[in-house]
Automatic annotation (TrEMBL):
Domain of life: Bacteria
Domain Cytochrome oxidase subunit II copper A binding: 138-273
One GO BP: ATP synthesis coupled electron transport
Gene source species: Methylobacterium aquaticum
Name listed for the protein in its UniProt record: Cytochrome c oxidase subunit 2
Its EC number(s): 7.1.1.9
Amino acid sequence: MGMARAQIRPATVRSFGGRAAALAATGLLGSAAAAEAAGTGQPVPWQMDLQRPVTEVATEIYNFHHLLNWIMLAVVLFVLALLIAVVVKFNEKKNPTPSRTTHNTMLEVAWTIVPVLILVAIAIPSFRVLRTQLSDPKADLMVKVIGHAWYWSYEYPEDVGGFKFDANLLEGDDQVKSGQPKLLATDNEMVVPVNKIVKIQVTAADVMHSWAMPSFGFKIDAVPGRLNQFWFKADREGTYHGQCSELCGQRHAYMPITVKVVSDQAFQAWTAEAKTKFARTDGGAKFADANR
Ligand SMILES: [Cu+2]
């Protein structure tokens, strides 16, 4: 197995209970707007929630994130209640002669055991997510992803045509015409079939980059001289956007990632077209993987 070092997109805690916020948004904005509230494949203005997950890994991370938020909310409310009780009931006026009690065995056992139980409750789903991430299933398609300063290139293996192309930022009129979001659209997209296990092998040609796709639930470092590997199985067709997530220099913000998830037939059609469009003479990339 490759040295897959997958990093989860930092589960930024934007609000207590993103789902609650999303539900509130449903009420306020109506269902049509709420359907977009989480953002599918791209962020949206006033987004409260994580982007909608489209892979198993992303779904597990998403659910784990919300579980953590609820646990955190409970802990915060409990501590707040204790603080309020102390301030209200045990202030100097109401309680002029404080108790001199220093030990209470039951209480000490409880405040040791309860946090341990909370951590165990967090650890179990956490390790479950880790197991899914590192499960390394057999790939239906492998794509080599290479980070450059400042664009990405993609190599498809011989069995689907053996071609390589660059994906540069779409700017100006081209971006407007494409209808794709600003600073997230690329001139060529990585295209993969839906419901197929896609493995990417990620490296860099110059400096360190990081291939990150929020709705797929992972980011993976692109390190010169090293091959990192991760897998995903997108369960919904669509266009998904990500960005380089390792500060790599002047145009770090201008090397977005676009992945198109399409049906099997559309993928066949695309590879047939890509083979001539991105013609190459050396037969395509070679892939090293224990599972192939
Ligand atoms: Cu970068």
